[in-house]
Amino acid sequence: MTSTRRDFVRTAVTASGAIGTALLSREALAQELESAPQPKVPRAQESLRLLILGGTGFTGPFQIEYALARGHEVTIFNRGRTQPTVNQELLSRVTQLVGDRDNDITALQGGSWDAVIDNSSSIPRWTRQTAELTKDTAHTYLFTSSLSVHSDNSKIGINEDDPVAELEDPTVEEITGATYGGLKALCEEETRKAFPNGAIIVRPGLIVGPGDRSDRWTYWPVRIARGGEVMAPGTPDDPTQHIDARDLAEFQIHLIEQRKLGTYSAVGPLSQLTMAELLYGIRAVTSNLEISFTWVDADFLAEHEVRAWSEMTSWVPPRGEMAGFSSFDNSRGVAAGLRFRPLAVTAKDTLDWWQTLPAERTASPRAGLDPEKEKRVLAAWHERNG
Length: 386
Known about the structure:
Number of domains: 2
Number of strands: 12
Distance between the termini: 46 Å
Structural class: alpha/beta
Number of helices: 14
Strand order of the largest sheet: 3-2-1-4-5-6-10
Shape: globular
Strand content: 15-25%
Order of helices and strands: HHHEHEEEHEHEEHEEHEEHEHHHHH
Oligomer: single chain
């Protein structure tokens, strides 16, 4: 083949009409992704001592991988209870400190780092304690926040300057759907207070890719690979956004290296992605030939108690107070160096990773629509529509 990996994949994921019928193209795409060499990560100009609070969850192992490849020294701090599902072999190359952010951070005392990445805090007290403890030695504190901090999701093109949620009781520490965004916003403020000249806030959208423990986005590659009639939510033109955990990790390390302070929405892809482009793009990397999509409108899904986001993952009806939930403005992050790997790469890597998991794990996904419920709702939809 004469096309580059980037050009090939871009063509595959954008030509959604051709994807639906060109079965040979799907086989060629899979072969191309398998055989394409991976680019070597260049070393950073300066080696930094990085402290990652967390490090064994979803994004952490990719932060470790990229940081080590760039020549940085990495220390991680966590409770020592979670084993990463990717890059486990890299733990032997990092310093591991054990403690608990709720009641025991003594392992961090006396340490000295150039920069801190705070992945694991959703409680302002935790952020305040670690930021205060490290501010005399570290020049940068990067807090991993969330796009859920925003108080109004009705606007199309929400950006970093739009209002964030405020809690009636700022001392609350119980994390619920009602408090999560406000707590993350308070964590951001604690970061800025402790590091007035060294704060970086990164607000990811839905984080996806190999290693995801939530199974939210993973539902779609797994479901589509299974084949048959796939229930697709809403309309083909409904927007959706996500960020590959590897792209997020590399962006965060890049911001620290370049000292690009400020707040960034970390979500992709580069241009607007529709649900049709997402689902047909994922189909392009599967080998199952017996796949069809039936689009079921939002009102019918609600009537049959099919939940947006948790069962029909990566999707929220784009209307009313959630009209802008999947249309965040990512231009500031892109200008600062945020890059996105092709959808086809994320989809194939996610599916390949899923297939390495134990059978008892894959038998009980943590998100997505139960197959029997999908059949019942599809049958009702067809009955209604003749």
